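lol ok so funny story. i was supposed to be doing the assay writeup but got distracted and ended up predicting the structure for this chain instead. priorities right. anyway since i did it might as well share w the group, maybe its usefull for someone
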Amino acid sequence: MSNLVPKNLALTKYTLIVPYLLPVEIKRMMTTAEQRRKGDRDSLLIKLLFITGLRITEALSLTLDHLERSRGESPCLRVIGKGKKPRLVACPPELADSLEAYARRHDIGDHDRLFPIHRKMAYWIVRRSGERAGLNKKIFPHLLRHSCAIERLKQTGNPRALQIHLGHSTPLMTMRYLSTLGAEEALRIQQEVKFEL
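and the output, tada:
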């Protein structure tokens, strides 16, 4: 019986509501970030974290060499995630173009980090942009990963695809985003399921 307690506690961790931001709130953060001295860098970092769902360490280690463009396919990023596990992350063409244009403007070579800053500075950029945008929430880089996950689930309803995209080792990690979706989103997802008899 005592073996059940840790499992139940672990399961509780994955069913808690995950905090996240709406796309409109992230847009406000990007707008306020653009007004700073290093605004193009800060705004692009926020955009990258939200659209790709990268962890902050993954984003800060990116170079142009990580960007893959194959003919006829959408670009993707090759990243090394937690536990040194490689994965491909979807990168919309518009974001890939922004990353390349930013690198050209700032003479960043293909092997150089796009964001040569420390984690502490990245945390400050994200937090400060949230404060200046008037968001009355605790703002931190991983919140943008949560926001990406929620938005992807709302649009696709596919937790397995999300698990692969985020690089989660277990489905339980991804399922906590499902518990966050409201009853309305959950009902919409279920109504879209089609059965062929």
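Confidence is low (pLDDT under 50) at residues 1-5. The domain at 4-188 is CATH 1.10.443.10 (hpI Integrase; Chain A).
back to the writeup now i swear
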